[in-house]
């Protein structure tokens, strides 16, 4: 069966796609063709440069998100805002992000997998699927240069820019190449929420263009009688926007962990017949109001440092939504980073338990991490909060690893600094979300 991997855009947030790629690689999925549009060019470029999933994770985790920013010469800004081509250019992407992520044009040219990159030809108002052998770094960067935010590439009388306004995922190209099975990795928001302000509405325009073009591809295939199996991996809720990522309100590591979790959620119930190619395939629900935080726990286990990092979303008191968990283990004797799948959070009064599955050397293990905040005369509140009972069990229930993990004062500071409202809009609502959750935690709600 001919299989294509179609990587939609999503700005810098496509770090999320690396977690998806990791899960797909663990399942042994191989692709005959890889296509990238807009931010998806980064993921496609890494794969076509020959990087394995674990190396993609390592490089994204080490990347400085500030490398995406690149300003114009000062004289351009002196012209005034109405004469600017854009706020910045793509030099940072070309000169720092591509090398940092291991995107190597020479290796892309000689990739053993067919590859295509979609770039908008503004001059002729069309999206062009460039073959892997045709691209260079400037053209790849142009494919990620959103109007207003980055200047286009001008070459041989043609203006090239991001294709997102024409399409954000090229299912038609995959079908043209004979794909019988398409795995669409989608991280553009697609919910009914319509927000205020220029940034939110700029993003809404991208959402409309991206989803509209995708549905047009489906309609064209149906009209032509073209049958194919469609698999779609997407977030449950729209991902945080690029400014939140750029400002550190969500980390690269959290996005990757969320991508792995979301891919595993799809794979756990995947059907051989895929999903219907219709408007529902990329639909998402809005995040319930609440808070997100990152907790990093660690200890020396059998002579090596073990660290459990979790990204937690807690809904506001009274919301019907369930808490959400994503994360990973770092433990040198086990080699590469190990991600959490099927994560759950159980809150029973003062007892909080994280559970998940982790894949180690082809075997699924059950992870539990339990904190008990029940008042105990023998312990102060900090002692209770600081200690977590951690264990990994195999399928027969035998203990594989266990330890008491601690947060530490530095970890507590990081946790507090990581707290961010989710599912809320506006300063007042964001502040109230934090107040309500903290009041619940400390029994004052």
Summary of the model, kept short:
The chain is an alpha+beta fold. It is built from 14 helices and 19 strands.
Detail the topology: elements first, then pairings.
Elements: E1 3-7, H1 15-26, E2 33-37, H2 40-48, H3 53-62, H4 74-77, E3 86-88, H5 91-100, H6 105-109, E4 114-121, E5 126-131, H7 137-142, E6 148-150, E7 153-155, E8 158-161, H8 171-176, E9 181-185, H9 198-223, E10 229-233, H10 242-246, H11 252-268, E11 290-301, E12 304-315, E13 324-331, E14 338-348, E15 351-360, E16 363-372, H12 381-386, E17 387-393, E18 399-406, H13 408-418, E19 420-422, H14 427-441
Parallel strand pairs: 1-2, 1-9, 2-4, 3-6, 9-10
Antiparallel strand pairs: 4-5, 4-8, 7-8, 11-12, 11-19, 12-13, 13-14, 14-15, 15-16, 16-17, 17-18
Fill in the keyword field for this structure:
8-stranded mixed β-sheet; 445 residues; 14 helices; 9-stranded antiparallel β-sheet
Description:
The chain is α+β, with helices and mostly antiparallel strands. Helix content is 32%, strand content 29%. It contains 14 helices and 19 strands. The strands form three sheets. It has a nine-stranded antiparallel beta sheet with strand order 18-17-16-15-14-13-12-11-19, sandwiched between helices. Strands 1, 2, 4, 5, 7, 8, 9 and 10 form an eight-stranded mixed beta sheet that branches. Strand 17 and strand 18 (399-406) form a beta hairpin. Helix 1 (15-26) packs across helix 11. The protein is globular. It starts with a strand and ends with a helix.
């Amino acid at each position: 069966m001919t299989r294509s991997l179609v990587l939609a855009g999503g700005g810098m947030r496509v770090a999320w796609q690396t977690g998806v790629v990791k899960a797909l690689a663990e399942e042994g999925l191989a692709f005959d063709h890889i296509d990238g549009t807009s931010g998806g060019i980064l993921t496609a470029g890494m794969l076509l440069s020959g990087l394995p999933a674990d190396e993609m994770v390592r490089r994204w985790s080490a990347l400085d998100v500030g490398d995406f920013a690149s300003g114009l010469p000062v004289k351009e800004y002196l012209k005034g805002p109405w004469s600017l081509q854009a706020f910045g250019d793509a030099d940072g992407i070309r000169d720092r992000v591509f090398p940092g992520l291991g995107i190597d044009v020479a290796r892309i040219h000689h990739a053993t997998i067919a590859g295509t990159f979609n770039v908008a030809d503004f001059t002729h108002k069309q999206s062009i699927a460039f073959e892997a052998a045709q691209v260079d770094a400037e053209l790849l960067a142009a494919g990620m240069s959103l109007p207003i935010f980055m200047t286009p590439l001008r070459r041989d009388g043609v203006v090239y820019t991001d294709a997102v306004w024409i399409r954000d995922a090229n299912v038609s190209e995959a079908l043209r190449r004979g794909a019988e099975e398409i795995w669409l990795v989608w991280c553009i928001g697609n919910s009914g929420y319509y927000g205020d302000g220029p940034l939110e509405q700029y993003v809404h325009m991208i959402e409309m263009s991206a989803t509209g073009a995708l549905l047009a591809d489906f309609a064209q295939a149906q009209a032509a009688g073209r049958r194919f199996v469609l698999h779609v991996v997407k977030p449950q809720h729209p991902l945080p926007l690029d400014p939140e990522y750029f400002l550190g309100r969500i980390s690269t590591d959290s996005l990757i962990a969320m991508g792995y979790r979301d891919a595993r959620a799809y794979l756990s119930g995947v059907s051989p017949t895929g999903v219907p190619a219709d408007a529902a395939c990329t639909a998402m629900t809005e995040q319930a109001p609440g808070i997100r935080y990152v907790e990093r726990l660690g200890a020396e286990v059998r002579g090596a440092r073990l660290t459990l990092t979790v990204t937690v979303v807690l809904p506001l008191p009274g919301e019907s939504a369930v808490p959400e968990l994503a994360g990973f283990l770092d433990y040198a004797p086990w080699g590469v980073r190990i991600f959490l799948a099927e994560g759950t959070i159980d809150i029973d009064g003062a007892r909080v338990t994280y559970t998940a599955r982790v894949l180690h050397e082809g075997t699924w293990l059950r992870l539990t991490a339990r904190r008990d905040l029940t008042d105990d005369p023998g312990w102060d509140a900090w002692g209770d909060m600081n200690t977590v009972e951690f264990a990994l069990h195999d399928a027969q229930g035998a203990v594989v690893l266990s330890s008491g993990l601690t947060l530490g004062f530095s970890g507590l500071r990081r946790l507090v600094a990581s707290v961010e409202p989710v599912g809320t809009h506006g300063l007042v609502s964001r502040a109230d979300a934090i107040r309500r959750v903290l009041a619940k935690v400390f029994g004052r709600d």
